Amino acid sequence: MKYLSLRTSKFLFMMGLLFSALSSFAQQNHGKIKGHINTSDGKPASDVNIILKNSKYGTTTDEYGNFEISRVSESSYTLQISLAGYKTLEKQVMIEINKTNVVNEQLSVSNKELQEVVISNRKSLLSKKTQYVARMPLKNIENPQVYNVIHKELIQEQIVIDAAGAIRNAPGVVPLNYPSGGFAVIFRGFTVGINSRNGMETLSGRSTVGIANVERIEVLKGPSGTLFGSSASSFGGVVNLVTKKPFEASATEVSYTGGSFGVNRLTVDINTPLTKDKKVLFRLNAAVNNEKSFLDYGFNKTISFTPSITFKASEKLTFNIDAELFKVNNTKPLFPTVTTASGITNPGDIKLDYKKSLVHDDADAKSSSSKAFVQAEYEISDHWKSTTLFSYVNEDVNYSYQVLPTWTSPTTATIRATVFGPISSNYTNIQENINGEFSTGILKHKIVVGANYRYYTDTFSSTPTPTAPFRTIDVTTNFTPVRRNEIDKVLLAPVIRAGRDEYTFSGYASYVLGVADRLYAMASLRLDNFDRKESGTVPGYNQNSLSPKLGVVYQVVKDQVSIFGNYMNGFQNLAPVQQPSGDQLILDPLYVNQYEAGIKTELFNKKISATVSYYKITNDNAVIRQADLVYQQDGKQVSKGVEFEFLAHPLPGLDITAGYAYNDNRIVKTSEANKAIEGNKAQDAPEDVVNFWASYKFQNVLKGFGIGVGANYVDKSYMLTANTFYIPSYTIFNQTVFYEQSNWRVGVKLNNLTNEKYWSSWGAPQPPANFLINLTFKF
Q: What does the alpha-carbon distance between residue 421 and residue 630 come to, in Å, rounded to a whole number?
């Protein structure tokens, strides 16, 4: 360990010298132009084309209307600002060495009759701009990793009110609501929570996820431990929430959604500068959501409050501060188990009325989360910047009643129950990133070097689950649902587990070399030191992990077609385990490796975007507990498949989002004692998943009127690797009709048009046909 620390110190010292030299080089003989573009209604204008005419310099604005062009040679230029549907602006600008020219403009609508024009400020659903996926500004067509982006405009169009509905727009992604109260998603054969927020670790273990403050959802495919660490990622990938940020105009949006099963949802989005010079910006998103279950008992109540502030301390230094307070009171989905003698192979065999609940409303749960994030971005020079981040995430479970039915026949269930809580989980993260880029001839270099310190602590208590059931329910009778007082009578004394203290220090670096704007090679490496302190009778342990990532991209047609390949690594630190003999087995970190190759396209002036890839993820050192309770680390699991994403905007007003994923995830090697599952499918891993959504907004006649249709198909999956109980496949069809103007919008959504009976990946019944109505006002 001492040798490792010495090597790390030398590495950081050498990198510091390199940054200093490169920073000096980057500042020589160049200037910069930056600014902000608004639409005519004062809102940020995204995807605006910004070019310096008759030169090689150009860019587009981000989702907040900001742009920046660096390393511009000293000269006088004509700056051209253009966006479809608006007048093209041109103005003369002078670029001087080591100086920044700031340009702020507002676009005007081309049609003089402004009242006849619908200003939607709708961002292209094809855009994949992000600085989080690679932790550096890297275009999708330059990036060897596959990722999907779900924009808030699509979420609004589909009248989606929860994370589960939104995430279905990513190829191969299936939502999962845990009986514990948390939210997760399944893709590439593995499960991951929404554990990243603006690139920093967050938590969705027991308090679910709100989407009122979501700008977009980024789904990174493949093991991503190298840049995101093991706590935020799974072997399938990472889900990163990008939140709404303050901007320089005053705007307010109020939205109400009502519908089937007593849905009542009110959201508000308020944005305003706090100072005349617009150096302090404020934004508040809040939401109140109340709804009943489609079952005869069950409910969900949530409240979220998410303020954020941007403070431009100087031309070079900007602070972004945001917080989130989220409260949940609801009933939990049940986790059914079946006995072998029951003859039940899937939830459809159970004879319980599809709309009837085994549990009453009063066996509920209450939880909350509070999160704080601070980011300081300092511009070292034109092409070098420092980003310092701090986050604190707390999740509390006051109490959570969880009923555990075991079906002994299609009509009979025995009932046990437990109560979790109080539980408190706390994460503190401090992160530093240095980003830079420079050119040497035809070579372009992009670098990110970062360090992350993570501290985790928790307290945990729960009642042991009784081995004997306290009740048997025959669903053919007029039974009464299980109530809280009935559970309280049979609860055992709560067990308080000793709190955990975990410390993780990580250092990582990623380098991208571009050759002649066609060939891009990426090399990344992460070193983790994981230290868990002794907790009660559980001994502590210390472990190091090394995680590499490699990738290459070649643009067959510049900025339009690229072929790519990647090697990506994921890891999990594992605590030692106690063998029956009393000996302790020291486990190696659990590693998986992915190899992937594919094609990315952005055609017809980015009106069509498509990605197709083949991947293989292998875990060679899985831990297997044998029948004699002896642990061995010699298992092997292989997940392989094909993914296809198609995004298109072929005609004005027409948008298409579609995807298909095939995954084969199997246990290919086990110990002798577990040969029965060798060759079986892994749990929670459907083979075929399809998503489709198409919408059209009329452009001339019936201007402002639109219609959307979509479907989702999920193949059958197994709840256990024994492959004895499966979740049936299902297809759900949805439709929306909407009408929008510049300052208001109304929409109607029909979900599950065919009234399909279907179950979640953990066996909970899902809503039948239902509707939602949304009314939104913008000021």
A: 32
